[in-house]
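S1.2 Input.
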Amino acid sequence: MSRGGSTLLCSVTFNKNGNQNVTGTSPVLTRFRGLTLSKTAVGNKVICDINVTINGVVIGFTAGTWEQTAGTFTVLSNTQTIGADAAWVFSGSGSLNMAVAASIVVTGTLTVNTSGTFVMGSGNNSFTTVGTPTMNFTAGTITILGRMNLTLGTATINGANIIIDPQATNLLATSSNCFEVGAAANFTFSSGTVTIVDPLQAPASTGREIRFRLATTGVHSISGGSIYLGDGISTTSGAGFRISIDADFPALNNLVIQTGTAVDRAPTLSTNNTAINGTLTMISGVFTGSNIFNYGGSGTLVYAGSIAQTTSSVEFPAATSPNNLTINNSAGVTLHASRAVNGTLTLTNGKITLGANNLTVAALSGGSSSNYIVATGAGELRKTFTAIGSFTYPVGDASNYSPVTLNFTSGTFSSAYAGVKLANAKHSQNTSANDYLNRYWTVTSSGITDFSCNSTFNYVQSDVVNTESNLYAGKLNGSVWDIFGLVDIDANTLSGTVTSFSDFTAGEAAAMPVQLASFIGYFVNSNDVTFEWETISEIKNYGFWIQKYKPSVGVFETIEESFQKAKGEPATYTWTYANATIDNTEFYLLQQDLNGLETRFGPIMLNPTSVPVEAVPSVFALNQNYPNPFNPATVISWQLAVGNYTTLKVYNLLGNEVATLVNGYKAAGSHQVTFDGAKLSTGLYFYKLQSGNSVEVKKLTLVK
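S1.3 Output.
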């Protein structure tokens, strides 16, 4: 059915009832000048499984179905019309190949469910609809050389991948909608993709931008699938991409931005609060304009580029921010402003740098030596807390991972968060001369009161200056460093229990201006109390006072006669308060340095006078072991004012635990235990008593 020369080709009409087959093995190409499908009903088919070419005459599908099950249907020119009682079906491996100048008008049904290819021409409108058509795109790759305009009827994308390339035509108008769902059309998008490859090329189409446009009216359901602006490969310059949605409806599901780095390809939102119910993925390209996205309840923002990215208020707004945030860019992401993630921050690949901005999260997934949060500026990583619990902050500097774990074992939480940042430098108030960390952490909190928190800070070996075994874990208390816990040089951690937050680092014991080993009180008779405190080190110390609580006015006042002048070296101090129990049951130790800066230690609580002194100790206290030095055994005793879960452990100078002497509930009262050091070597050790929120540490010496 083929003759030489396009003007001499046959025009063929198919009008027989029932099905007809166009098939053969040789020749495999059938060329028609014109093709008319005029069967009595859409159920009557022409089934074709060979290559067919149409040239010169408009195809007229007025009634019946043409089903291309294999081979390629080629259209070289003109508009191909599918009438109201007709259908064009591509199934099996059937393919369509239209010239750029050709186009399709559908008033009946178009179904693409093929493993083959489907290339539509552009014309002025590469795909238009009139009447009440039905379009089903369920499988296959559909390439449109121009635009897709769904004006009327129903269109469904359920598995097909549609690629729209407007570069092939100069017939699109200024600001053309290369994928448009009109006000009278119904649109369902449940799976598959729509990709707009390029904006129109300048200068031939200067001022034109390519839009993905959805009208407000009509029945739209976008429950799945993904829309791509740019293919991540093309670099053709043009007037940009635009998402254009009437008002804020309908909502998009998944949107992928990969428009490239050229400024003139930048995407824009035509409508403020453009809704995203699924995932917005930023691969390349930066939004322009001030209109923003509005995320649904499970909306997720993903940064997945291959070069460094910076967030913006368009895709990451403050008030309508995504519920979840994912970082998947090995080149890194920089936060442009303080933001909150009410769902989960997922660290899949790469780092996010906070700079001066805070990032608040409710939950976090991931975090490793290569995927973490750079928090070395003024901004901090904040975790919201509603109750006791543990959280690891995956923070670090630009080169090293230094996570922090906060484990709240008690506390009151009200609109609460705890924040962490760090600096890869020696703390300005760390006066260590030889041995210290070139790193410190700052922990803040809001809305958390009366808490106890087990805190762990991880450093890297390159942070250590000189001798690691000489380091002590320090917490800044005003201008004073308190030794708050232990340094584990095997695990490269500082850890201890704190009841307040500040700056944390490690250094020499002598560089921590006043380090208190203990502060206790005990009755010497029924009314008088002796206060005793011991210092491990004293630098620039002026002296101490005892402060008493005055319940009548609700404040602590300093007892001037309690002043004890500083001894300037590790020492034990005592002062006896006559009639201490009269209207006073709570006391602080106030320390002042030579610069006038003050630090309080405590408080300690005395038992109410109604409780017999001989029955319950007045305060929590850990006594010095006896004998000391010892070989090989010594007795450690302590007092508990209230019963609680209690541990008593022994550590070596490296911070390694060498013995657990007590681990369980202990009632209020006096207790003692024998520690046998027969298996240990000669040296200095520490023993630590913790009961509830009360902690005390002392030294013991084993001499063999």
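S1.4 Remarks. The chain has no helices and 57 strands.
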